[in-house]
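Lab notebook: predicted structure, single chain.

Context: the supervisor wants predicted structures on file for every construct in the current expression panel, including those that have not yet been purified. This is the next one on the list. No modifications to the sequence; it matches the entry in the shared construct table.
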Amino acid sequence: MGNPKRAEDESLGVCECILLGLSVFLIIITFPFSLCVCMRVVTEYERAVIFRLGRVRGGAKGPGLFFIFPCTDNILKLDLRVMTYDVPPQEILTKDSVTVAVDAVCYYRISDPVLSVNAVENPHKSTQLLAQTTLRNHLGLRTLAEILSERDEIAHNLQSTLDEATDPWGVKVERVELKDVRLPVQLQRAMAAEAEASREAKAKVIAAEGEQRASKALKEAADVMSTSGTALQLRYLQTLNNVAAEKNSTIIFPLPIDMLSGMMNK
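Prediction complete. Output recorded below exactly as produced.
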């Protein structure tokens, strides 16, 4: 007795030949009207996957013109352009127990048309659902500070994880970007108060450092002027000049400056 599987394959081949012959016969007797059914055109950004009696006929066809058998061939067109998926806001509990809403955008494309048709029922829907779950799982392992400060690194890790998961589906994830991180209102107020207190403390430290440097410079200037009476008199006259310019008044010296200096020396 022969192998039943082999006999089944041979019978399937005979049936296929009969159907193909019938298709060719119908095309010939209806020529040239049959050309409208047999000719297909795909654009530069499209590829066509042809199923002949349920089996894939070669690889993806296109771009350009090709022929099919109308009775035995079934054609599926796939778009190879980059698709944009706006991930809706996901409620995420971070590692430090803070609830945030994060939304993102995912860019992906079909890299293998034949594999995307045979491996998964709906590659677009599957990729979108996977992007949502991966975003929640990945950000759940991060603290709020890490999410706010390491957005580029998180986006790169998300892209690598999604690309690795969708590769068996014939889908290539090009890029993932985090759009917005929404915090609770109470947490926003607390962070704003903390930031304001930090700025005030920093301003006080800067003012204290400035006063310290100014006092040191003033002490050095006083030490230099104390060694020279002429410099002290010039500084005294300069101060009087500034006061007179600001107040617009006349200053009368009751005693000469030389007499005052002599009394100071005594």
